[in-house]
Prior knowledge:
The strands form 3 sheets. Strands 3, 4, 5, 9, 10, 11, 12, 13 and 14 form a 9-stranded antiparallel beta sheet that branches. Helix 1 packs antiparallel against helix 2. By secondary structure, the chain is an alpha+beta fold. The protein has helices spanning 37-50, 56-70, 114-123, 162-171, 176-186, 190-196; strands at 20-22, 28-30, 74-86, 89-101, 104-111, 132-137, 140-145, 153-156, 197-201, 206-211, 221-226, 229-237, 248-253, 257-259, 275-277. The chain has a domain at 93-170 and 260-285.
Amino acid sequence: xxxxxxxxxxxxxxxxxxxxxxxxxxxxxxxxxxxxxxxxxxxxxxxxxxxxxxxxxxxxxxxxxxxxxxxxxxxxxxxxxxxxxxxxxxxxxxxxxxxxxxxxxxxxxxxxxxxxxxxxxxxxxxxxxxxxxxxxxxxxxxxxxxxxxxxxxxxxxxxxxxxxxxxxxxxxxxxxxxxxxxxxxxxxxxxxxxxxxxxxxxxxxxxxxxxxxxxxxxxxxxxxxxxxxxxxxxxxxxxxxxxxxxxxxxxxxxxxxxxxxxxxxxxxxxxxxxxxxxxxxxxxxxxx
Length: 288
């Protein structure tokens, strides 16, 4: 089910020129050298959206996540889907990397465990495990399937700010991690939080925040670090049939690695595919 399009209006928040600009909070921010003034405005608008939370900690947290993705010259974000029976035993199903620079968006991914991937797909007919890669070339946004062999690609319809929508969605699918963290921050004391969440300290200054249930193990939640702010993983109960209910399905996202530019090898379309114009937009790749 496609999510409603996030409204990223080009509002005149500030006047911009050159490679830096001032936001409405008085900070000087650095943007990709190749980014247009319109991109500057989109980023600032996204920061304003991220700031629309009633708790100061939440506002600062979300704003810094946006900045870490959208403001460097280029970023590389590694990701993986895996099944985890405990923190030390896990099976990676899919791995890949996202790249973003001044509105250009690329994804390269691969299936690591084809058997487990097939089991996931068969286990839940209502969940879409299809996998797509993307490339932004010459102002056009291309999409192709990683999971369907010999399927030709699409040249998607564009709308203003669509690649920002898409990378923010890929970092936090449907805003699930943001919602869990917002609820977690809303309860200021450890006693209050313990009534609703199961908390676990992990390595590298990370914590796991799982929703507490009365009738089943706490498997749904997030893994997060607060310094630097980042959503490291979304956690769900595994959809695998016959699996122990404590087994978790993990979407893991690494903190952005800053690059000077996107590698040239990424800026290529698959030579064995044809691409046709499509009426679809990135909305069709985003699900609630």
